[in-house]
């Protein structure tokens, strides 16, 4: 089993990997990094590439994966739909004004910095490149038991995004709003999360 990443900072050392698993660092997901240049894999799983997709179009990633996939093989694409962060309440009467204001701004800035509308269109995109999509997309939302993990993960991505804004004052104001929204989130028992979208396609030729 081969794994490919453009950032190996979170990858365990080889001694920490199961037998038969190798992780390769690559410069891009859009070029064929199989040395033989021939279809090699029966199954390719793609996940969490939203930040690396350019121009709201993952087509070059799909083409690269198709070139490495054997006829009859499968591609599974798992992606957090970060274009649609959702607010989940345990108690609908609890206020969430700061969170609602923050999420509107977050969605606006993500649209400007890294449009992610393509995530919802993954079945059509895979189909355009010759994959037979198994059913439609599947959406999975973590239960509320994962609220703390989801909130920490979501707010970390919000903070990271705020530092990418060209207007540094705007980024600072956004982080101030985040602090108030996070306090409200923890105090009122809310969860901020993004659905996991899963799409499976088969290469029929």
User: Which structural class should the secondary elements be placed in?
Assistant: alpha/beta
Strand proportion:
15-25%
Radius of gyration: 19 Å
Distance between the termini: 23 Å
Q: Poorly predicted ranges (pLDDT <50, ≥5 residues)?
A: none
Global mean pLDDT: 90
| Helix fraction by DSSP (H/I, runs of at least 4) | 25-40%
The oligomeric state of the chains shown is single chain
Order of helices and strands: EEEHEEHHEEHHEE
Which word captures the global form? Answer: elongated
Largest sheet: 5 strands, mixed
The tally of beta strands, per DSSP, is: 9
Number of helices: 5
How is this fold's topology laid out?
Blueprint lengths: L1 E4 L16 E4 L15 E7 L11 H10 E12 L5 E4 L7 H17 L8 H7 L2 E3 L4 E3 L6 H16 L5 H21 L1 E4 L2 E8 L2
Parallel strand pairs: 1-2, 3-4
Antiparallel strand pairs: 4-9, 5-8, 6-9, 7-9
Helix pairs in contact: 2-5, 4-5
Structure description:
It is elongated and about 55 Å long. Strand 3 (41-47), helix 1 (59-68) and strand 4 (69-80) form a beta-alpha-beta unit. The chain has helices at residues 59-68, 97-113, 122-128, 147-162, 168-188; strands spanning 2-5, 22-25, 41-47, 69-80, 86-89, 131-133, 138-140, 190-193, 196-203. The protein is built from 5 helices and 9 strands. Strands 3, 4, 6, 7 and 9 form a 5-stranded mixed β-sheet that branches. The longest helix has 21 residues, at 168-188. The mean pLDDT is 90. With 205 residues, it is α/β, with parallel strands linked by helices.
């Amino acid at each position: 089993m081969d794994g490919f990443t453009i950032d190996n900072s979170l990858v365990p050392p080889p001694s920490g990997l199961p037998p038969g698993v190798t992780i390769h660092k690559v410069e891009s997901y859009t070029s064929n990094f199989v040395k033989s240049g021939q279809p090699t894999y029966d199954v390719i799983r793609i996940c969490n590439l939203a930040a690396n997709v350019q121009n709201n179009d993952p087509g070059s990633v799909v083409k690269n994966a198709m070139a490495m996939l054997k006829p009859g093989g499968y591609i599974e694409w798992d992606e957090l739909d970060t274009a649609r962060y959702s607010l989940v309440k345990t108690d609908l009467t609890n206020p969430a004004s700061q969170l609602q204001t923050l999420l509107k701004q977050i969605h606006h800035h993500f649209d400007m910095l890294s449009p992610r509308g393509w995530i919802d269109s993954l079945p059509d995109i895979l189909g355009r490149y010759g994959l037979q999509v198994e059913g439609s997309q599947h959406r999975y939302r973590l239960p509320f038991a994962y609220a703390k993990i989801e909130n920490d993960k979501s707010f970390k991505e919000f903070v990271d995004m705020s530092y990418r804004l060209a207007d540094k004052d705007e980024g600072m104001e956004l982080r101030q709003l985040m602090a108030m929204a996070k306090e409200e989130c923890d105090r009122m028992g809310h969860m901020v999360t993004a659905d996991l979208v899963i799409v499976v396609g088969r290469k029929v030729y």
